[in-house]
Amino acid sequence: MLARASSAASRVRASVSGTRAFRSSAAPALAAKAPLANPADLSPLKQFFYGRLDGPALFPFPSALSADEREAATALAEPVGKFFADKVNSAQIDWDHKIPEEVMQGLRDLGLFGLQIEERHGGLGLSNTEYARIVEELVTDPSIAVTLMAHQSIGLKGILMFGTEEQKAKYLPKLASGEHMASFCLTEPGAGSDAAGITTRAVPADDGS
User: Fold this and answer.
1) Burial class (CB in 10 A: 0-12, 13-18, 19+), 26
2) What mean pLDDT is reported for the chain?
3) pLDDT tens digits, residue range 85-139?
4) I need a surface site. Which of 39, 55, 84, 148 has the fewest CB within 10 A?
5) Domains in the chain and their CATH numbers?
6) What angle do CA 17, 18, 22 make, to 5 degrees?
7) Which PROSITE patterns match (predicted)?
8) Cβ neighbours for 148, distance < 8 A, ≥ 6 positions apart
9) Backbone phi, psi, residue 192, to 5°
10) Which is higher by pLDDT, 74 or 14?
């Protein structure tokens, strides 16, 4: 009985010893294998699986613009991207629940409150495609992006598209400069945030106002 147990223990020790020897002899061979590829040297699709995203390769900017228009859009976008990288602290904005005044002034200085307002009213007069190129830079901070896009996409859009020349001359310059901020009345008790469900209407008063 003791002899059999001793024999079994010997076989186990021999097996473990052999396994260690195999691992030891295999180690140099494993180490000699070629190193993993550098993700930067791989195709955009392979880089994606390494957690890298080559934006221009996977989502190229549309070619609806002429060469001159693309160059102009890039010239506008580059300082915007640099401003967001150097001056915008998104974590602090989220913590404070407020965009600092110096950041707001920087947005004004870049002309970002009047991207699609005509130049004659103090804006940049961008097309939809050019506007979309600038928005690519804005969305690095959602708080600022919503502030600027709500101001322009729904806030002042009614005046821009349907306002009289007198209304445009009165309101658009200060909206383009960021001196005034446009807003949009959206929520009602029976509509929530469904713009199509709003029942409030503005109608002329008896005195014509």
Assistant:
1) exposed
2) 80
3) 999 999 999 999 999 999 999 999 999 999 999 999 999 999 888 898 899 899 8
4) 55
5) 66-183 (1.10.540.10)
6) 120
7) ACYL_COA_DH_1
8) 107, 112, 113, 115, 138
9) 60, -125
10) 74
How far apart are the C-alpha atoms of 146 and 92, rounded to whole Å? 17
DSSP state of 47: H
How large is the average pLDDT for residues 48-72? 72
- Residue 177 tokens read as 């400069």
Q: Long-range contacts made by residues 37-46, C-beta under 8 angstroms, separation at least 24?
A: none
As a whole number of angstroms, the distance between CA 50 and CA 205 comes to 64
Q: Is residue 80 within 8 Å of 110, Cβ to Cβ?
A: yes
The span from the CA of 93 to the CA of 188, in Å, is 28
Residue 175 three-state SS: helix
